[in-house]
Write a structure and sequence with these properties.
By secondary structure, the protein is α+β, with helices and mostly antiparallel strands. It has a single domain, classed as START domain (Alpha-D-Glucose-1,6-Bisphosphate, Chain A, domain 4, 2-Layer Sandwich). Helices cover 27% and strands 37% of the residues. It is built from 4 helices and 8 strands. Strands 1, 2, 3, 4, 5, 6, 7 and 8 form an 8-stranded antiparallel sheet that branches. A hairpin with a 2-residue loop joins strand 4 and strand 5. The chain is globular and about 45 Å long.
């Protein structure tokens, strides 16, 4: 959904309610984890620190959706669960207009006790794009380095997204960069 004005809290609440039963706009679930996709694949790997304490802080930051604290991208509900099935609205301000895009958390990545922790969400049929994004933090056993990894598989769905594909690609790149910086800020890096 596109708008010239910022959506109100009421608009977003209605959007979320209308999104609950919508299907994903792509298949198969898990496509962001493979290199054999017809979707555009992008990845960012951002250093966050080292050691077990840094890894625990990074996991907490993911649980709180800190990687969406960007100023121009807003997540609703603000402290959504990262459990599969959770519906979120991603509200984006871009070049003088706003969009609301629906997503569902589709799977967990790793485990709370392993060296990898995170989740993926997939786009619903009310999202301008179609695809999946994985957000995870990794504790590299060989170096003890903690990294934030964002991996996305996407392609345009809405006619405006198709028409504005070069602009969409700039915004996707900006999101990867700013998301990594938000995680670094959360870590005090």
């Amino acid at each position: 959904m596109f708008s010239l004005t910022r959506p109100s809290e009421r608009d977003i609440a209605h959007f979320l309610a209308d999104s609950r039963d919508l299907p994903l706009s792509y298949e198969p679930v898990g496509l962001a984890l493979t290199d054999k996709s017809a979707f555009r694949l992008d990845e960012a790997i951002v250093p966050l620190g080292s050691g077990a304490a840094a890894y625990e802080r990074a996991k907490d930051a993911l649980r709180e959706w800190t990687h969406f604290n960007l100023g121009w991208v807003h997540l609703y509900p603000r402290r959504a669960s990262i459990e599969p099935g959770t519906i979120v609205a991603v509200v984006i301000r871009h070049f003088g207009f706003w969009s609301i895009n629906g997503c569902r958390v589709v799977y967990s990545v790793g485990s709370d006790t392993g060296a990898e922790f995170g989740f993926a969400y997939g786009t619903l049929t009310n999202h301008a794009e179609m695809g999946e994004e994985v957000f995870k933090v990794v504790l590299r056993p060989e170096t003890r380095e903690v990294q934030y990894v964002l991996r996305a598989a996407s392609k345009p769905r809405d006619p405006l997204a198709k028409l504005g594909r070069p602009i969409v690609r700039v915004l996707q790149s900006r999101f990867r960069r700013d998301s990594g910086r938000a995680m670094q800020r959360a870590m005090g890096a």
